[in-house]
Each structure stands twice: as C-alpha cells, then as structure tokens.
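REQUEST
  id: r-88c1
  op: predict_structure
  target: Pectinesterase
  payload:
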Amino acid sequence: VFGKNFIARDMGFRNTAGPEKHQAVALLTAGDQAVYYRCQIEAFQDSLYAHSNRQFYRECNIYGTVDFIFGNSAVVLQNCNIFPRVPMQGQQNTITAQGKTDPNMNTGISIQNCSIAPFGDLSSVQTYLGRPWKDYSTTVFMQSTLGSFINPDGWLPWVGNSAPDTIFYAEFQNVGPGASTKNRVKWKGLKTITHKQASMFTVKSFLSGDKWIPASGAPFTSSM
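RESPONSE
  id: r-88c1
  status: 200
  body:
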C-alpha cells in the first residue's frame, strides 16, 4: 500500500508461503495516514511491514514468528491481538524489529492496550518482545497484556549478546504473567519511563492521529 489515507476494514491479508520460506510479508504499507480496523494479518516471518510514514492499527489480529511487526514507520497498534505462532525448528520468535536509522526520525512501534498471546503450543519456543534491527530501534509496549510464554529477558540482541546503547525500548503499565520486568536484559537502551514519556507514543502525540483517524470511522484512544 503506497497511497495516502488508505483505509482497510474487516479485511484479511495472508501470506501462505509458510515458515520454511523465511521472509514472507503479508502486508506492506508505506503510504501516510493508513488505518487498518478489524483486519487480520497472517504469515510467519515478517508478516506486517510497517514500512514508513504514519500508520494506525485497531482491533486487528496479527500472526507471525520472526520480526513479524517490523519497519520504520510511526505506528500505533491499539486494542489488537498479537499472536506469535510456531516457527521453523530452531527459530526464536521476536514480535518486533523496528528499523530507525537516524535519531531525528519520528518513527517507532507503539503497542498500546494489546493482548500478546500464543497461537498454538509455544512451550518449546523462545518468544521475545523484539530485537533492534537498526541502531536507533524504538519500540514501546504499554498498557498491554503479556502472556507467560514471553521469555523473562524480554528482548533479544540482533547480533552478539547486547544491543546498541542508542536504541529506545520501554515497557509501561503492562499486565499479565509475562509483564514482569524484574529479569529483563540490562541494556542501556531499555528504559524505565514515566507517564509523560509514555504519552509521547500515543495516537495524538506520536501520529497527530486525532487530526486524521476520525475520517476513517475507526475508533481510537488519543492518549493514555
């Protein structure tokens, strides 16, 4: 999707390639002010490519395995169900891989009031909230419910055993058995944030979405 002001409602986007085909995108969006409402996005690796510009996903079901919400847009996923699923043998699941390459970009992945639950039996699979695709990778999980299958480390390095100090990762007011931050990785870029900082990743502050989402007819919460 490359056009501005694209709206999808009650639609499904599926890539049937399967996990053995590695990257297999179900939906790529690069147009500004895109809204997806009550949609289903289904693949394995790299399902949802939130490529660039501003995007909003509301009450969507998103399924995948490796880096399955990725890209360098300014995107808010709100009231969505996020379903990590069984990957190829030997693979680990990573929900996000945000691609910010420049600290001056207003981009990032904001996951607000979503449910993170397993699709299938993930008892033998390690599942993480994300890994930093680029040096300024920016991702916030807030006010969401995290299942017990999330690895206590929370986050996975892209390479080696650490992450660039320049990333911005945060978890704020999440609940559920996977939400404890006690045993999270000790990275400089994994922040403890205030309510004010978290509010910078809401629809109004991050996307100016209060100005363009109403025209789509999709419901939204503009702040915390």
